[in-house]
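Subject: complex prediction, re-run

Hi both,

The earlier run crashed halfway through, so I resubmitted it with identical inputs.
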Amino acid sequence: MTPFALWVYLSASPLFWLTVTLLAWLLADRIALATGRHPLANPVLIAVAVVAVLLRLTGTEYRLYFDGAQFVHFLLGPATVALAVPLWRNRRLVLRTVVPMLGALVVGSAVAIVSTVAIAAALGAPKPVLISLMPKSVTAAVAMAVSEGLGGIPALTAVLVLTTGVIGAVVVTPLMNALGIRDWAARGFSVGLASHGIGTARAWVVHPVAGIFAGIAMGLNAVVTPILAPLVAALLL
Amino acid sequence: MVAGFAMLILCQLIGEVTVRGLGLPVPGPVLGLVILVLAAAAMRRGSGDDRFVDPAAPLGRVADGLLSILALLFVPAGVGVVQYLGLLGEHATAIGVALVASTVITLLATVATFLAIRRLVGVGVEDEEAGS
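This time it finished cleanly. Structure:
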């Protein structure tokens, strides 16, 4: 087999791009760890950049890449269901603060959807982009489903969701400190709601109470945004 | 392990089928999450304890494992950016400003509402609950 024939086989095999995805993740995680888990050194962002560059260099279509990567992507569904487990474990904590959480949930979720659409629309973004932006604060699997259901571009939504996660994770600590907010439950809840899993990961680094509330907010917003987004779309778009 | 994973995808399957069958606006996995919470309540009623979500139990172990690699699961979808570099570049300002401003506004609105209502109804969460 010539090297070229070997490459033809490898590049078209799901095994190859699945392996590349996992190796890129390990490399990205190593880099994030080396920076002391600095919010800017986000492992998802690094892994995506590494794979994207490899696809560009080898001239590989995304569709072909996804044939391999779909096995990782598939796990987003069961992982979303798995959020029920930490939610159940912390249900007493949830029930004690259920009133402030539900209020913050509805207000935060609505503000997240409306503000992003209003700002992007004012700056001239077209309708498919606006729809793709709407569920940006929810975890990727849910956001992509919402985007697809409303006529957006799911893959674009995934990118916007990721970026939102990184922005929230970078901004939350200096923002809350500047405002003098010391309530870890409130801080965690807001970052989990605004920036899903990436914000939640950040909250765990900062304080365990913040981490628990961020996880709860991410789970609750994953339920509320799919209900609110179609309403906002019907009203504004 | 297999039992825990089977439970997760069974909940997801019931969720997907229900969503499609009834034409609900909620994604299937989210309904699956709700179904698993209901199942947990039923299991607690049956066994009288929470052993099934223990980190060593099949369900607890699989859920902890999946959630610990949650960020990795975003990568394949994120790589989809390669298809939309043109679209993103064309609307870079609108998208960039919307994402940053909206995220900050959302953080502020959420934290303000949480604190305001909590002060109003006078409930508190003590830090000692951190370990629960």
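Chain A has two domains: 3-74, 81-236.

- K.
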